[in-house]
Amino acid sequence: MKNRIITISRQFGSGGRTVGKEVAAKLGIPCYDNELIEKVAEESGLAKEYVEEHGEYTTHGSWLANVLAAGRTYNGISNQDYLWITQRKIIMELAQKGPCVIVGRCADYILRDIADCIKVYVHADMDKRAERIVNLYGEREDSPMKRLKDKDKRRAAYYQFYTEMEWGNANNYDVALDSGTLGIEKCVEIIADIYKSKPIVE
Amino acid sequence: MKNRIITISRQFGSGGRTVGKEVAAKLGIPCYDNELIEKVAEESGLAKEYVEEHGEYTTHGSWLANVLAAGRTYNGISNQDYLWITQRKIIMELAQKGPCVIVGRCADYILRDIADCIKVYVHADMDKRAERIVNLYGEREDSPMKRLKDKDKRRAAYYQFYTEMEWGNANNYDVALDSGTLGIEKCVEIIADIYKSKPIVE
Description:
The structure is a homodimer.
Chain A: E1 4-10, H1 16-27, E2 31-32, H2 34-44, H3 48-54, H4 63-69, E3 73-74, E4 77-78, H5 79-97, E5 100-103, H6 107-110, E6 116-123, H7 126-137, H8 144-163, E7 175-178, H9 179-182, H10 184-197
Parallel strand pairs in A: 1-5, 1-6, 2-5, 6-7
Antiparallel strand pairs in A: 3-4
Helix pairs in contact in A: 1-10, 2-3, 2-5
């Protein structure tokens, strides 16, 4: 039997990471987010900050930038591809260990055939997310709107580049939730309930 | 205070209409689907079958086809635009009467400013939907896959033409659910629970 894994894709600033942690705590299963980044950094030899940024975002927002980024190589492949391969391997290993929550990093796509995935997408409107990132990370030189737009664009480009699927398309998820209108707690409750009640996929 | 309205956008064959009816029954509020079509037909003078088909689907799948369709006019506007205007008016009137469920017909967009909407999107994968439409409507000359692809394309084109928004983009909904993996009953339960617990929008 495949392990039941909750994968959480989330817009930057939507609180999806918090949702993931709280769902895992509620269900008594591990949540891999920061720990995943540390494992990937350790195994790849790349800096944690590099993994954090480049394991989920393109350097720039375009496909062309990805192709150009392939110029910097590591054993004949680009750093970004090397990171993708290492990250993919670790996500697959974690999914074999037991039920868990994995935040971001295309885990929904990576685990599509080997786990009983509950694919979740968490989003919120710009105003709600802007408020959240200013509260969490403080003011920056760029406006919160500019930071959000940049992150959205680069995360979508990364996802599409490696999965050839459209990020944020509702048809790709079992459940997609607006944390801004529903609230973090309701999102946690819905996802935990689905985890407990969804028919098992062999 | 605005009325709380559940708008259900759904892929053809996903069971979204059934979800809508069952949510309404559970909450003791009306569900406007067939009744809405009848009201629009009565007020517009257009045939019920015409309203059913052209109040939600473009004639063909493209924007150009919509522009060309404007050739057939009624008092200087195309039949399709005349139907849109009538349908919009009736949806707004229904939303003023009291809480309800409205299935399809861009109600999420039409009511965005005048109701406290819970915007739902229901979808399922091709195999599940194909099975459902064959059970419900029987075999046709075209394969179920062809029928689904055609309906998806024309519904998306209609939505985009009148709302300038992307149909099926998770960011446009409070909640998007896969009725194929979660089951109709779980979808009903989640939506009814959100109806009862979502913070009120003034």
